[in-house]
Each structure stands twice: as C-alpha cells, then as structure tokens.
Design goal:
Elements lengths: L12 E4 L2 E4 L4 H27 L13 E10 L4 E7 L14 E8 L2 E7 L10 E7 L5 H7 L6 E8 L11 E7 L3 H12 L7 E8 L8 H10 L3 E7 L9 E2 L4 H7 L7 E6 L2 H13 L15 E3 L1
Parallel strand pairs: 9-10, 9-13, 10-11, 11-12, 13-14
Antiparallel strand pairs: 1-2, 3-4, 3-8, 4-7, 5-6, 5-8
Length: 306
C-alpha cells in the first residue's frame, strides 16, 4: 500500500495545459480541488490504519453461549486459596467483562451439572487471559474441582452477569465491606479506580477474615492504599494473633460508621461475603440510616449486595 502525497499552494494562480495563468476567478475552483484531494487522502489514510492495526476486538465472553478456556497457570496465594489464570483464544483477546460483573462456571461433578458465580480480578486491560482468585472449601464442589485442574485442562464459562457496572463518576464515595473471597469484586473496582487518575472516587474498604493467614491479596491492597490517597483499607480478624493492631471480632455498626461514608445521595455501600455476614451487615446499614436494600440488588440501590 502506498500513498501519493500531493502538495498544493492555494493562490489565485493556476497551471492549465502547461500555461501559468493568473486569475482571481480560479480561486474557488482550486479551493474545491484541494478539498476533494484532501478528503480522498484522509479516507485512504483511515483505510491504511484499519489495514495495519485492525478493528477493535469483540469480547470473547457470551451471555448466551458456554465457552471453554484452558488453565495457563496456578499461583498459590494462601494456605487454601490460589490465583488461577485462564487463557483466551488469542494473545490480544479481551474477556469482555464490565467492571463489577461476574461470570458463571459450569462443571459436571459426580454426574451432576453444577454452576457457581465468580468475579475475575483481572479486567479488559489484561489481554489474552483472565484471573480468578478462588478459596478451596472442604465441601465446595466447584472450588475443589478447579483446585484439581491441571495446566491445559479447561473450564466452561458464560457471562457477563450481574446488576452492577462501575463507571467513573458513579458516586462521590464507595464504602466496601468484604468477607473472605468477597474481596474479588471489590478488588476489581478498586483497581479500576486507582489506575485512572481522572477518577476521584473515594473508596473505604472494611475487609473481615477469620485469621491473618486468610487475608487474600493483602500486599496489593496495602500497596494501593499507600500509593492512592483516595483508597483506605481496614482489616478485622475474628481470631487475631498476639500483637495484631487491626480490628478484632465481627464488624459492628460502630466500625461501619467510622470507616464508611455517611448516608447521602452520592454514595454507595457495597457488600460481598458469606451469607450470614451479609445478613448482619444489611441490618447494620439499615440501622445506621442507609436505604434498606432489596433482596436482589439493582445498580440504583444505595446498599448493593453482590
């Protein structure tokens, strides 16, 4: 592919049939000719851009069709949790998951089809793969099955799913209360906010766990809190070790009141964790004056339960 670059000096002069003519009447004709040639050149350049760089990739995920993705890598991050990296068909593919949404994973276990929902911690800025942080529970069907996967074996996925889609400027402040692996949708949102200098949303995270060893991705959370003034994290442990300086016991209304934004039209409280914890946090939030959440949360809700 080549371009013919044409330089034209527009004046009231023209060359016709090899003769240099000077006439003010020719100026509109020459100007029109320049416009036509420039339009043609711009169109050719745009075609070249498509030729060299290609069109933007369509998302790999489908909400209607189950698709399979191979395990690329498994990274142990705690005594009972790991980061699982799954490959997309091409190195420059995007999963196609809006920030705050999740996927369904389906597996046949003991002759039964079982589905569970998980939120990738990666985003569409990560090309060619997506990451899942999963805790293996002794009685967890899907989590135990995924833990047993070998590199190259596949999972079956459909999505995206969910009512929450984060966009910059959604609210002035977010209060997050997470328990255990309930950190995954929170981390996805936190990462998106922290890597966007134009997003001034304030984020306050309360992260509850049983023991210190159960705190997932603590190093990353601490790094983000140290380097982004709009993000803070407060840890609470049910069984703290000697010398622990963070919170102890269950998350109380007083803790929520201290670390989360006060009720207002331009804030949201996000909840994710074990059902008993979410039930307690829902009651605490209502007692503190936040809007009562519905059983199935919508994006417009002040208190949103993942």
């Amino acid at each position: 592919m080549s371009f013919n670059i044409i330089t034209i000096t527009v004046s009231s002069a023209a060359v016709l049939g090899g003769f240099y003519l000077y006439s003010p009447d020719l100026f509109p004709i020459i100007a029109a000719l320049v416009s036509v040639l420039w339009t043609a050149f711009a169109a050719k350049a745009f075609t070249a851009k498509l030729f060299f760089f290609g069109k933007s990739k369509a998302p790999v995920l489908s909400p209607e069709q189950w698709k399979q993705f191979p395990l690329l890598e498994k990274i142990k991050i705690s005594h009972n949790s790991a980061l699982y990296r799954f490959g997309l068909p091409n190195p420059d593919d995007v999963l196609g998951l809006p920030i705050g949404q999740h996927i369904s994973i389906q597996a046949e276990i003991d002759g039964k089809l079982i589905q569970r929902s998980y939120t990738p911690t990666s985003s569409d800025d990560d090309l060619g793969h997506f990451d899942l942080v999963i805790k293996t529970y002794p009685n967890g069907n899907i989590s135990k099955w995924i833990d047993g996967l070998k590199v190259g074996q596949t999972i079956t996925v459909k999505g995206p799913k969910g009512q929450f889609k984060y966009k910059p400027g959604l609210v002035r402040a977010l209060g997050m209360i997470a328990g255990g692996t309930g950190i995954t949708p929170m981390l996805q949102i936190i990462r998106a906010i922290c890597k966007n200098p134009a997003d001034k949303t304030r984020v306050s995270l309360i992260f509850a766990n049983v023991t210190y060893e159960d705190i997932l991705l603590k190093d990353e959370l601490d790094y983000l809190a140290d380097h982004h003034k709009n993000f803070t994290v407060y840890y609470s442990l049910d069984k703290p070790h000697e010398g622990w300086t963070g919170g102890s016991g269950f998350v109380t209304p007083e803790v929520i009141q201290k670390y989360c934004p006060s009720p207002a039209d331009d804030i949201k409280i996000l909840l994710c964790g074990p059902p008993p914890m979410i039930n307690s946090m829902t009651k605490h939030c209502e007692a503190l004056g936040y809007d009562k959440p519905r059983s199935i949360s919508k994006l417009v809700d002040q208190v949103f339960k993942f």
